[in-house]
Automatic annotation (TrEMBL):
This is Polysaccharide deacetylase family protein. Its main location: secreted. Keywords: Signal. The lineage of its organism: Bacteria, Pseudomonadati, Nitrospirota, Nitrospiria, Nitrospirales. It is found in: Secreted. Residues 80-348 form the NodB homology domain.
């Protein structure tokens, strides 16, 4: 009797391990590039990205997001399944990421903000970085009117700091006690104000900040978004899926459903026109649960997408909402650290 009970327990344990907890991980990247500074931790160097892909190819089961979606719907996710995704649409996705994906034969989905194609300006968060965090002198006071409310900041920055100079005092120091902000604190404050704004309201504020800081709005080559021609090149070959990421990268929950519909549908139709193929996949800008409304996933489904990615951590299992697929953020880890971390993300 005792041996039978033990045998049954072991069988149940194996079943749970092999079936009930089987799941997959979707990785989210943004950039593959060597940058002098990356305060938002959006970039992975080409060397480290290659090491990540080597780990995936040797230890896990890389598959396309479309394959993973179908496997999850059937409840037949392969052990160690991983999908790679990229958000936003930086030009280095073509020049640095795609060659490495081809080298290691790892498929990936790229979610492109179609309104930023062919633009000389940077993504707005990079624009803000360039104007505030680079080594040029800044005036001591900035005043902006945002949504009818006047905001004023006193700025304490070194005059023409060198690129190696630490441009923000550690934590909350005497400077902040005196009501002044370092550059990174100023960036954080402005970022939080600009993030929920629609593009037509954010753009003139960025123009004001550019004038105040003595910067122009022309973007850096190192932070360029894709051109239409580069998008076409990126989409060639069987390893790459192109997905939609709205037109202007808004916080969707700050928009009405009608405005959300326009952003989502126009991004789908715009990419389909440029690539002459169906666009079946979508990723929510920013992607936390608060960044889109309760109705948004159903709207995405109604507009003809097959699945959509969020940006909060979780495991893809059978029964997961295909229009709220969780993803895990990556950082510029070397291969050993990446291997250690990804191993902790799997349920088995």
């Amino acid at each position: 009797m005792g041996n039978t009970v033990i045998s049954n327990i072991r069988w149940v344990g194996r079943y749970i391990k092999n079936h009930m907890f089987q799941g997959a991980t979707i990785l989210i990247y943004h950039r593959v590039a060597e940058l002098p500074s990356d305060w938002q931790l959006m970039s992975v160097t080409p060397q480290h990205f290659g090491e990540h892909l080597d780990v995936l190819r040797k230890k896990f089961y890389p598959m396309s997001l479309q394959q993973l979606h179908r496997a999850a719907q059937k409840g037949k996710i392969p052990k160690g399944a991983v999908a790679v995704t990229f958000d936003d649409g930086y030009a280095d996705n073509l020049y640095n990421a795609k060659p490495l994906l081809e080298k290691y034969d790892v498929p990936a989905s790229f979610y492109v903000t179609c309104g930023c194609l062919d633009q000389e300006q940077e993504f707005w968060w990079d624009d803000l970085d360039r104007m505030l965090l680079q080594p040029q002198s800044l005036p001591q006071t900035l005043t902006l009117t945002v949504e009818g409310i006047e905001h004023s900041w006193k700025v304490d920055v070194p005059s023409n700091p060198s690129p190696s100079t630490e441009i923000v005092p550690p934590k909350f120091s005497k400077i902040q006690e005196e009501g002044k902000l370092g550059r990174k604190e100023l960036y954080r404050s402005l970022h939080s104000l600009l993030r929920p704004l629609p593009e037509e309201k954010r753009r003139p504020l960025l123009d004001e900040i550019a004038k105040w800081s003595g910067s122009n709005r022309k973007g850096r080559v190192t932070h360029a978004s894709l051109t239409t021609n580069e998008l076409e090149q990126l989409g060639k070959g069987g390893l790459v899926e192109i997905g939609a990421h709205t037109v202007t990268h808004p916080v969707l929950s700050s928009l009405s459903l009608s405005e959300q519909r326009d952003e989502i549908l126009q991004s789908k139709e715009g990419l389909e026109e440029k690539l002459n193929r169906p666009i079946l996949s979508f990723a929510y800008p920013y992607g936390e649960r608060s960044d889109y409304s309760v109705q948004t996933p159903e709207l995405v489904k109604q507009l003809g997408f097959s699945y959509a990615c969020s940006n909060y951590s979780g495991i893809v299992r059978r029964g997961v909402d295909p229009f709220q697929l969780p993803r895990v953020s990556t950082r510029d880890w070397n291969g050993e650290e990446f291997s250690r971390r990804i191993s902790t993300w799997f349920p088995v």
